[in-house]
Specification:
The structure is a single chain. The protein is an all-alpha fold. It folds into two domains: 5-161, no CATH class; 164-276. The model has no long low-confidence stretch (mean pLDDT 83). Helices cover 76% and strands 1% of the residues. A two-stranded antiparallel ribbon has the order 1-2. Helix 1 packs across helix 2, helix 5 (142-200) packs across helix 7 (243-253) and helix 5 packs across helix 8 (263-276). The protein has helices spanning 5-31, 46-59, 66-92, 112-139, 142-200, 207-240, 243-253, 263-276, and strands at 105-106, 110-111.
């Protein structure tokens, strides 16, 4: 039986959906609440669909050899997960999954437990589960398959574009917060330097010296207030454009997301989300 391009696409979408079912159920149990898991809005997890396709490409030639399927599938899927994680972090400055606290992890993108799970998944998929899916697809009317694949492609393309826009908006917000925090740190350092300079240069608290200190501190406080206000205004502006709620929804679907590049800014934004009653709790 020969797989056409539409056949492969259907397999991809089907396993994206199964991955969403598994991940959503697992995370919902861990969080003790319903979590619509994933980068996308809809019930699809591309990392699982991509993983399934990569596993099938490399393991179908060994589909009767469980040991070969386990190691080949584990290796190929682990490589996919690692490079996908690295690429997403570089693009969006956020890790949507993080294994940093797991034993035997590599840069937090992969870990031994996850790799073993991919190997087990490969055996279950290639030797057992895929046979049923394969029969289902080949029993399907060709025209129906083409229409279904077309509709799913259109839907996921829209969903992916929207989700990428949310991730980019989150990245820009984190960069803005990080930049603002850096400016605030410079201002604070300026306070310390100004006070040390004026204070050490005065043998006695002359009126002119006190005026210099008060003037420097007053100017610094005003600039500090203006900078913090500008940061909060950017956040509020984001919220009024409804982008704020969309970012909150994205993080709500990814409760284990972290940002190693903007750790403090990410923590601040999570606090803001909690204050507004949106996003991850």
């Amino acid at each position: 039986m020969t797989y056409t391009f539409s056949t492969w696409l259907f397999f991809f979408y089907f396993y994206c959906f199964l991955g969403w079912v598994w991940e959503t159920c697992y995370v919902s149990v861990c969080q003790a609440k319903w979590v619509n898991r994933g980068f996308l809005h809809g019930p699809f997890l591309p990392i699982y669909g991509s993983g399934a396709i990569v596993v099938l490409v490399f393991t179908l030639p060994f589909r009767t050899d469980a040991v070969s399927v386990f190691f080949v599938g584990m290796t190929s899927a682990t490589l996919l997960e690692y490079f996908t994680g690295v690429a997403m972090e570089r693009l969006f400055h956020v890790r949507y999954w993080d294994y940093s606290k797991k034993p035997l992890n590599l840069n937090g993108h992969i870990c031994a437990l996850s790799s073993l799970a991919w190997g087990l998944f490969s055996v279950l998929l290639t030797l057992f589960g895929h046979n049923f899916v394969e029969k289902l697809v080949f029993a399907m009317n060709r025209n129906l398959l083409e229409v279904l694949v077309f509709l799913l492609t259109a839907y996921l393309s829209i969903d992916m574009a929207e989700s990428i826009r949310e991730a980019v908006n989150l990245k820009e917000l984190l960069v803005g917060l990080e930049s603002g925090n850096e400016e605030l740190r410079h201002i604070q350092k300026g306070f310390e330097v100004a006070y040390a300079f004026y204070g050490s240069g005065l043998k006695e608290k002359s009126e002119a010296g006190l005026r210099k200190i008060n003037s420097a501190l007053g100017s610094g406080k005003e600039k500090y207030g203006n900078t913090r206000a500008a940061i909060m205004e950017r956040i509020e502006h984001t919220r009024t454009k409804k982008t704020y709620k969309r970012i909150g929804s994205l993080l709500g679907r990814n409760p284990y997301a972290v940002s190693k590049m903007h750790e403090k800014a990410f923590s601040e934004f999570l606090d803001i989300l909690k204050e507004r009653g949106a996003g991850k709790k």
